[in-house]
């Protein structure tokens, strides 16, 4: 079975491998270019305004690094589209499932062996690739003019163990959506939409609370005058909220925090409830409400990575289980 | 007589339409059984159900006493299935297709599958996509035979083969039955072809089994009667189909009509006439052919 799957997917696996090698090449090039630019102009040159020749050089190096980051971020999606989606869907389309399912292996074994034959090299390749990405990200992304750490959005999404787990999820996602909605939607489009939706949901709804977040009072326009030292350098902003001012004791007649926030946003024409202009913030202060910002400190990097990876792997297992169930009941 | 394949009230529905219904039949072990019927009769559905590729909407299907089950290796190892679309991995070489068979089947006979294709001069190092339709059919058949199954389910195996290749396939099936006691159930539109190799026949039409039995008994139990239309009434036998041309009636009957008046002639039908008679019986459509009006017994009685 391993040979059969390898024979069917070897071209696609080789293409993905080549894509990884190209990315490694560009990682080396951008690292070299970025170090040259910083050595010539200094990292802070990228922040100068109006843009000088040096700033342009640093910006160009940064934007090149960004393109490489986007390419790295695409990898799990490519795994889902090139390897996951066709795993069952292409067999059903070409009706070769009727050939495969009339051989001497059960459908369950057929699917699980095929999935594992792809998943194992994907995990190995993504792990090796991840080591290079980790090294590259810690040299380029984290030493950029913006002083971002590995926990910041771009670096976090492409480094660590989460992208490896996301590739496994992409494989399961492609397998499942290739079967489940193939009558209504292209397996490729279905996989892409589903994967993008899962990633976005994790990013917006799950990530901020994946590890205990730290809160600090916000001032005008949502900024913090001085971040507490407990947050460490370059914590990642993960959202905002409101709470009663310290020392204030609410009674039964005190309006709720949400009411005050809405009231202040309306009366000061703030337009939204985001920590913002001074009159809005003053209104909150008068009413004993404090705007707060939430952060995930850099020290939470590995906790967040492992927990996000865990969620991806649980989802991957669930989708694979559903795929096995659907294939075993499939009426050809 | 041991039964290799048995179905009881087997039915398969696609949305609101029944592709097969109330299908009860038995295929004896070691027999070559022909499955004949018009397009859409349910032949492919029956074969897919028997192979466990498809699941019944009602009833049951068993092979060697075991329910058709795709999650049983024991069942899969005993049953070989050739789909009418001849699905093959088009980007595989022929030898790789055989290797696939070897990897996925514990009882794979690589030497005979390879020999079969070499004898047909099919280049083993060619990609499947480069082969002609007939050659692809031969590769698909080799995949099926190489598995050395006890029950072979072949959906139109002769389609797209040239006469020489057809003869070769027929011989291969006969050899397999003789040497290994393989049971074969094959569908075809061409009755003459089935008559040459089949010892049993199942006539399928309108999603139901119209008639089944040994070829010998079918030929022995049916008669063609030709005589005057005015006296074409027989109560002791079943009239399968009838046609009239002028004042002359031609009837296909099952059973012994007994002594007849001298104006009636009794002929022995060939298998083709029997099959066509049953297909006409089940058909709701009436068709005309150069002055001959085909009628069903129902219409005749009214």
Task: Please characterize this protein's 3D structure.
The complex is a heterodimer of chains A (332) and B (302). By secondary structure, chain A is mainly α. Chain A has 2 domains: 2-209 and 300-329, no CATH class; 214-296, no CATH class. Chain A has helices at residues 2-41, 53-84, 86-94, 96-100, 107-139, 153-158, 162-180, 187-206, 257-267, 278-286, 301-329, and strands at residues 214-217, 236-244, 289-296. In chain A, strands 1-3-2 form a 3-stranded antiparallel sheet. Chain A is globular and about 75 Å long. The model of chain A has no long low-confidence stretch (mean pLDDT 85). Chain B has 2 domains: 3-205, Rossmann fold (3-Layer(aba) Sandwich); 222-301, no CATH class. In chain B, strands 6-7-8-3-9-10 form a 6-stranded mixed sheet, with helices on both faces. Chain B has a 6-stranded antiparallel sheet with strand order 14-11-13-12-16-15. A 4-stranded antiparallel sheet of chain B has the order 2-1-4-5, with helices on one face. With 302 residues, chain B is an alpha+beta fold. In chain B, α6 links the parallel β7 (151-155) and β8. In chain B, α3 (94-104) runs parallel beside α5 and α4 (110-119) runs antiparallel to α5 (133-146). At the A-B interface, α1 and α4 of A face α2, β6 and α3 of B.
């Amino acid at each position: 079975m391993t040979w059969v799957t390898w024979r069917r997917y070897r071209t696609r696996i080789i293409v993905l491998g080549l894509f990884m090698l190209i990315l490694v090449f560009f990682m080396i090039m951008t690292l070299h270019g970025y170090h040259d630019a910083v050595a010539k102009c200094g990292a802070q040159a990228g922040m100068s305004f109006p843009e000088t020749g040096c700033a342009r050089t640093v910006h160009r190096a940064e934007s090149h690094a960004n393109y490489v980051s986007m390419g790295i971020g695409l990898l799990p999606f490519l795994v889902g589209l090139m390897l996951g989606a066709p795993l069952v869907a292409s067999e059903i389309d070409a009706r070769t499932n009727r050939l495969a399912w009339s051989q001497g292996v059960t459908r369950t074994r057929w699917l699980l062996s095929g999935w594992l034959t792809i998943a194992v090299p994907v995990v190995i390749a993504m792990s090796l690739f991840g080591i290079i990405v980790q090294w590259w990200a810690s040299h380029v992304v984290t030493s950029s003019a913006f002083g971002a750490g590995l926990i910041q959005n771009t670096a976090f999404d492409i480094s660590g163990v989460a992208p490896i787990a996301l590739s496994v999820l992409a494989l399961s996602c492609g397998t499942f959506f290739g079967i489940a909605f193939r009558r209504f939607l292209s397996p490729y489009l279905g996989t892409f939409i589903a994967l993008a939706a899962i990633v976005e949901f994790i990013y917006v709804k799950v990530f901020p609370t994946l590890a205990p977040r730290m809160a600090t009072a916000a001032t005008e326009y949502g900024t913090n005058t001085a971040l507490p030292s407990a947050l460490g350098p370059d914590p990642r902003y993960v959202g905002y909220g409101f709470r009663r001012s310290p020392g204030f004791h609410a009674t039964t007649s005190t309006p709720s925090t949400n009411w005050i926030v809405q009231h202040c946003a309306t009366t000061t024409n703030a337009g939204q409830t985001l920590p913002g202009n001074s009159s809005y913030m003053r209104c909150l202060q008068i009413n004993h409400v404090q705007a707060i910002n939430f952060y995930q400190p850099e020290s939470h990097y590995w906790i967040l990575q492992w927990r996000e990876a865990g969620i991806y792997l649980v989802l991957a297992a669930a989708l694979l289980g559903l795929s096995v169930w659907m294939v075993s009941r499939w009426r050809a | 007589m041991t039964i290799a394949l048995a179905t009881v009230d087997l039915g398969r529905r696609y949305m609101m339409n029944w592709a097969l219904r109330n299908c009860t039949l038995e295929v004896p072990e070691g027999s070559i059984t022909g499955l004949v019927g018009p397009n859409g009769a349910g032949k492919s559905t029956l074969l897919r159900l028997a192979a466990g590729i498809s699941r019944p909407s009602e009833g049951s299907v068993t092979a060697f006493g075991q329910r058709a089950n795709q999650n049983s290796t024991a069942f899969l190892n005993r049953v070989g299935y050739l789909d009418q679309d001849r699905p093959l991995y088009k980007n595989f070489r022929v030898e790789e297709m055989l290797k696939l068979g070897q990897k996925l089947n514990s009882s794979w006979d690589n030497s005979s599958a390879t020999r079969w294709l070499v004898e047909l001069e099919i280049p083993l190092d060619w990609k499947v996509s480069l082969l002609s339709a007939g050659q692809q059919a031969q590769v698909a058949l080799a995949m099926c035979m190489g598995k050395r199954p006890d029950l072979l389910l072949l959906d139109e195996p002769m389609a797209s083969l040239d006469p020489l290749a057809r003869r070769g396939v027929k011989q291969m099936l006969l050899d397999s039955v003789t040497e290994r006691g393989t049971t074969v159930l094959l569908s075809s539109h061409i009755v003459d072809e089935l008559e040459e190799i089949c010892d049993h026949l199942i006539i399928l039409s309108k999603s139901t089994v119209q008639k089944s039995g040994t070829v010998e008994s079918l030929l022995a139990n049916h008669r063609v009667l030709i005589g005057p239309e005015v006296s074409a009434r027989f109560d002791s036998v079943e009239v399968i189909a009838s046609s009239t041309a002028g004042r002359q009636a031609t009837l296909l009957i099952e059973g012994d009509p007994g002594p007849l008046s001298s104006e009636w002639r009794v002929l022995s039908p060939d298998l083709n006439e029997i099959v066509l008679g049953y297909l006409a019986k089940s058909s709701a459509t009436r068709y005309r052919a150069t002055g001959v009006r085909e009628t069903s017994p129902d219409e005749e009685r009214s």
